[in-house]
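Please check this chain.
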Amino acid sequence: MTRQELNRLIIKELAEAVERMPDQRFGQLLTNLSLNEIPYYEESQVTFNRLIKNEVREAVRKITESLNDALEGKDK
């Protein structure tokens, strides 16, 4: 994938985060996506990988939380 294609994917993920978390400030969005401290020389692939890793971690957290709630008999 080219650097430009990766940059577009990163921007797409950021735009989707704006829709999911409309009350957050821009800096909060960047922090929550692990994008708040990107060195200017970091390759887009590294940034994209960090973004995906963060999303996977969040998905696992939500699944684990749901499973724990189900085991404890909590309804959401």
